[in-house]
# Entry
Amino acid sequence: MKRYLAEHLSSILKEVGAGDDTALTFEKPKLEAHGNLTTNVAMTLAKSLRRNPRQVAQDIVSRLTLDPTAVSRVEIAGPGFINFWFTDAFTTRRVTEILAAGPEFGRTAAGHGRKTQVEYVSANPTGPLSVGHGRQAAIGDTIANLLSWTGHDVTREYYYNNAGRQMRKLAESTYARYRQLYNSGFPFPEDGYQGDYIKEIAEQLKAERGEEVARLPLEQALDVCKSFAEQRLFQAIKNVLARMGVVHDVFFNEDSLYHNGEIENVVAEFRRMGLAYDQDGAVWLKTSSMGLEQDRVIIKSTGEPTYRLPDIAYHREKFRRGFDLVVDVFGADHIATIPDVLAGIKALGYDPDKVKVVIHQFVTLMQGGEQVKMSKRLATFVTLDELIDEVGADAVRFFFLMRSISSHLEFDMELAKEQSEKNPVYYLQYAHARIASILRFAEGEGVFAGAQALAGADTTLLTGAAEVALAKLLLEFPDEVEATAASLEPHRLTAYLHEAATAFHKFYHDHRVVVPEKDVAQARLALCLATKTVLANGFKILGITAPERM
RNA sequence: GACCCCGUAGCUCAGUUGGAUAGAGCAACGGCCUUCUAAGCCGUAGGUCGCGCGUUCGAAUCGCGCCGGGGUCGCCA
# Structure
């Protein structure tokens, strides 16, 4: 619809004296009384032309000739809006397009096959995933889905570090718990990982290797513990992600950047450009000359790099692998690292604008109207696994996606658990199940035999207000997917699908589907199937299931 | 102290990148099931968009200054 109007308007705009850079945009007015689509182009033009906006609008409209079977009315309103009304038939006759596209409806080519990477979760294998990781997993995976649906060539990536101090601590903790199984007096490291999961891993180690590991020299034993714990923890991480439908294409090991010399390489490059220098036994990056407040250490006086250096090397690696667009999904606690990394890759000659950093705020778990305090020490720590056990994977994913990324998310566990109309997940899924039920009924009555049989349905027979409104909304789905993908804000899609479900429930309430008039029944079945298609495709992007019955 | 996010109905949150009379869900109140799923629909009530200046045809949205909540500021990641 937008395309149709844009084609007709663009030539007229030039006649009226608009420059080539004039932005022609259409919006869906909030009020129905303002038409189906509106443009403020006359108002934006008025400024540059130094003319009265209503006169400009009048000028445009008088030159406009539109197909009367598509556009029923054009009006100039308010300060200079041009409002358009479409005929109902223009909308309803397109319903069969949705059926024809089926599971592909909503896919677009907006991304032009751009090679795109989405990095998310990226937790080191030192413990089970938290609720916060869960939000990140849902957001990252859904963004990846959105980009894929809009024609990007997407790689889903998980970056991790299995070396360094944290992993050393993991090894020591595991070793201590293992030794304690034979000697309860064996000392546990001061700053070790307290969680019970370490004890479980130690027991598994004992079950597989017996006392053998205790007899090894310490360093060797720690190595065994480390790789054993890492392997177990990674398995657990992958399992819980799989429960949420999250599967990564690539697990990128930070260590590989050391082995292939990339880390040294980046340092050498910085030195060559005069952007790195030695001071107090450490190597500093001249971030102050890159527009940042102060210089930062990239190699400690101990010889170990700080996190910045591998992060920069990793991002350069992303560019080298040919990604045109890189989306990094991080929690709010990582916000401080971003400017350094972006400045670093810019200094290395890459375009930091190709990196989109999505920072999500924290999750607060609410139970019985009270905040669940999260503390690793006090063992009140709720893992992602436990949350899924408690409320189910669909609710977890949907709740994590329901709010804008920059908002703190209050997760009401009672609500998520509730199997009722109060729960937004069920509201959406119920619409889908309800349609499935209608189709089953129609099949039993012998009036429905699959999508193919509806291809010839005369959907212009859908003339009721609720029917037209639903059809209109369904046809907006591809635009909605595109807009959501462009904004990297998945919650927009949850809101749209809620609207679609509401429009369907209203239609269902107003009209009986399986009616004696065969052609009307076919048209309504087509509308039902189109709704089911949009909901199912939307659920697929969000990563929740589309139940046939509830 | 500096920087980032948030502040909108009793509660949880939207608000299409500056548009027309600020919306949804829940909670409250009142209606609608012998008919394809009532896990649904319809209606009523509920607002100083934190506060104050400014920018312009026009501000919840942009700028500046306050107030409040959360987060980050290491040779930790």
